[in-house]
Write a structure and sequence with these properties.
This protein is mainly alpha-helical and 213 residues long. It has a single domain (56-212), classed as Tetracycline Repressor, domain 2 (Orthogonal Bundle). The protein contains 10 helices and no strands. The longest helix is centred in the N-terminal third of the chain and has 28 residues, at 2-29. Keywords: DNA-binding, Transcription, Transcription regulation.
Length: 213
């Protein structure tokens, strides 16, 4: 058991080193020697767990996706309503981008490698599917207007958040990500939320410290 624990710790250490390299340099710019430097492990330790840079990149994407889905499960278990869950999932994604190198690297790699449906696009597909289900429940509960198309809303939210975080990264290193997220909700919610839900949702969208943990 101790040996397995050490192996798991080493594997995670390699993943974190790879994430730092991929985040800074992208897939094309990252090298195995640079990843070794960031990870501070031996070449043998790296190759014991991963056979190539490509294998490392897919592992980072998979880990980022697992982190996002686990966070979504926590939000779904604690949110007071489907619409609140939608807002909190977006806020948690913002938090992960600001605090988790593996998430930042996974998002960059997904954009660089996701040219067609496959492992690199799975995070977007699953994220969209989750939002479609939540938006459908929210509309049925009267939290969203009856005219809202859950699938269209989910596609819009995934695309908007993706573009928003890229612009935020380019201009401020994502320092204004929460502010941009609040702006998005401030513009969108009045057109999709039921009037009785709107004040609570706008208040929730403006908060910065109540993200899932």
């Amino acid at each position: 058991m101790a040996k397995q624990a050490r192996a798991a710790a080493t594997r995670h250490q390699v993943l974190e080193g790879a994430a730092l390299s991929f985040e800074k340099l992208g897939y094309g710019g990252a090298s195995l020697s640079g990843i070794l430097s960031y990870a501070d492990v031996t070449k043998g330790a790296l190759y014991f767990h991963f056979e190539s840079k490509e294998a490392l990149a897919w592992a980072v994407i998979k880990e980022q996706h697992a982190m996002a889905m686990l966070a979504a499960q926590r939000v779904l278990a604690t949110a007071q309503s489907p619409t609140e869950a939608i807002l909190l999932c977006a806020k948690e994604m913002a938090r992960q981008l600001l605090t988790e190198p593996i998430v930042r690297a996974g998002v960059r790699l997904t954009l660089e490698l996701g040219t067609s449906r496959g492992p690199a696009t799975d995070p977007y597909i699953d994220w969209t599917d989750t939002l479609v289900a939540l938006a459908g429940k929210a509309r049925e509960a009267g939290e969203l207007r009856a005219t809202v198309d859950p699938a269209a809303l989910a596609r819009f939210l995934v695309s908007s958040f993706t573009g928003m975080q890229l612009v935020s990264e380019a201009l401020t290193g994502r320092a204004d990500l929460y502010e941009r997220l609040a702006d998005m909700w401030g513009l969108l919610l009045p057109s999709i939320a039921s009037p009785d839900m709107l004040p609570r949702l706008l208040e929730l969208a403006a908060l910065r410290d109540d993200v899932a943990s």
